[in-house]
Design brief:
This protein has five helices and no strands. By secondary structure, it is mainly alpha-helical.
Length: 113
């Protein structure tokens, strides 16, 4: 269940049109006083760390590498599917940030579980 909540949140955030996404980031940046660019990049890391961890909770019987493979495949698919969305683009840096988050999520699961 938690996996699907995180999954849906990531899809909604990722596939919001560019102008809306920029406005949301600007608002959150003004509230938190965190640089907007930094905030957008940290969001990738945090969402994919949580997604990675929830994949583990949802499918604990599968191997770590299979779970990582699912999250990596999702990261790439997520970036590619942004192409037709107005104001969004496919970005290799975002994939790398997603992979950093995936690694953090894996470390958390290894340490906690």
């Amino acid at each position: 269940m938690l996996f699907w909540l995180v999954f849906i949140l990531e899809v909604v955030l990722s596939h919001t049109p560019g102008n809306t996404s920029i406005n949301q980031s600007a608002w959150l940046s003004s509230v938190t006083r965190v640089n907007e660019g930094l905030l957008r990049k940290v969001t990738h890391v945090v969402l994919f760390a949580i997604l990675s961890f929830t994949v583990h909770l949802s499918w604990p019987e599968t191997s770590l590498w299979a779970r990582v493979g699912v999250v990596v495949a999702w990261s790439i698919l997520d970036e590619v599917t942004k192409i037709p969305i107005p104001g969004r683009h496919c970005n290799l840096v975002d994939v790398v940030l997603n992979l950093v988050g995936t690694g953090i999520g894996c470390m958390i699961q290894i340490l906690l579980l």
